[in-house]
Specification:
alpha/beta, Rossmann fold, ten-stranded mixed beta sheet, 238 residues
Length: 238
Amino acid sequence: MFSRNDWSSGSNEERFTEELSQLKRRGASVLVVGSVRATQRRDVCRRLLGEATGQPRRRVLASTTGDSHDISHLLDGNVDAAESVKLVNYATQARSASASESGSKRSIPLDEVSPVETTTLADLGIAISSAIEAFETDSDGLAPAELRVGIDSLIPLLEEYGTERVFKFVHLTNGRARATDGMIHYHLPLDRDSDVVSVLAPLFDIVIELREQNGVFQERWSIHDGDQTSGWVSISQP
């Protein structure tokens, strides 16, 4: 990464674009914040998972909300999910018992992908790490930014374990993804200036803020703990 002195030449926009491009190429940790519609959140998730490029990707998707793993909303249908996608589910003990009693099952459109079920924060971290390790073994080493990890919400984890334990979880999980030059992102649907976001933000290379202004979806990217920002950019929805 560049030092602060490296930012002394070129325009702010050029420096921001160059550093962001390097982070995307070699992998980065990303926090997505802001309370917005599911469609806007899904759009940025697809882009962070590398859906817009033709480069090979290995993806780990972790659900913490009890929602279905609907891969079709995040990945194109031509993805070989059996080879390139691993799913992890997290559920509290109470939610897990309730689901078992009701006989409910998560709907996974690509039935060849079986999710790993976890009920503790430690097991969630282990499951994500094991999925990454399996990809490393299968590919005999991952290329920079080939690995993409997406965690759909930190809210259930914060409610269950508190900020301090989630901070440690994020720190360790970011480190595991960084060891492969992978890109990992988490959703936290709270305002950028909330106390929890302020505590967690320094753990990330990039913070993406989402909002809707007069019916227009917008996002703002910040790197180096707010040192450089993109300004608010309007994003057209598919």
